[in-house]
Design goal:
By secondary structure, this protein is of the alpha+beta class. The chain is built from five helices and eight strands. Helices cover 36% and strands 27% of the residues. It starts with 8 loop residues before the first helix and ends with a strand.
């Protein structure tokens, strides 16, 4: 049996960046090629990507393949929205059932949703509060910030929001809803939200005229 080497965060990021690129080439190639032989080669590349992901993340090959099950056409980054709503110096956070850690409410943008509509929907679904989006405060490439390594290439849109009603309500994805002082944050789900990002959103809250941050 092959002894699995210990991987560093840098190793993880490099390997995942490589497989993302190969997967994107294969997915785009399948979408546009008219040559059956080229199509077979692109499919083989996708099989290779699944094998690498399975080996490095220690998950079944079938689960690795499923990561891109619904991805077709020209390969593009996925879009995640997060909503920052404040009460004084306290920020609204929800606790994820998946890892027991806290985050700004948010999630994937659905097809036909404007980003501002998506963040309002996510806030309601995950916290029970109604909100309106006031400004796009930041648009960042997840890979350029100290989030844990991710299989997908993701753009994160952070909106400054204002609560307009509702009441704290848990959901299928969240099991707690609370306001926390920005100076005493709980353990965060860092794949979703970083403390530095919450701090930056508070700066936007205090100064609405700040320009949008972007990578």
């Amino acid at each position: 049996m092959r002894e699995k080497r210990a991987m560093t965060t840098s190793d993880d990021k490099n390997i995942l960046a490589w497989v993302r690129k190969v997967q994107a080439i294969a997915q785009t190639g399948i979408a546009f090629t008219h040559d059956s032989y080229d199509r077979q080669r692109y499919l083989q590349l996708q099989e290779l990507v699944a094998s690498i992901i399975s080996s490095e993340l220690d998950i079944p090959v079938g689960r690795a393949k499923a990561l891109w099950d619904h991805e077709d056409g020209y390969a593009t980054p996925k879009v995640d929205v997060r909503g920052a709503a404040f009460d004084g110096d306290k920020v609204l956070l929800v606790r994820e059932r998946s890892d027991g850690k806290w985050t700004l409410p948010g999630g994937w943008v659905d097809v036909n949703d404007a980003p501002s509509e998506a963040v309002v929907r996510e806030i309601f679904e995950e916290s029970g509060y109604h909100a309106k989006a006031l400004k796009l405060a930041a648009l960042v490439d997840k890979n350029r910030h100290p989030h844990p390594p991710s299989v997908h290439h993701i753009y994160k849109l952070f909106f400054l929001c204002e609560l307009t009603g509702g009441t704290a309500t848990i959901s299928d994805e969240t099991d707690a809803v609370e306001f926390f002082s920005i100076h005493a944050l709980p353990e965060l789900s860092t794949g979703r939200t970083l403390a530095s990002q919450i701090a930056r959103m508070y700066e936007h809250q205090l100064n609405r005229d700040l320009p949008t941050d972007f990578d």
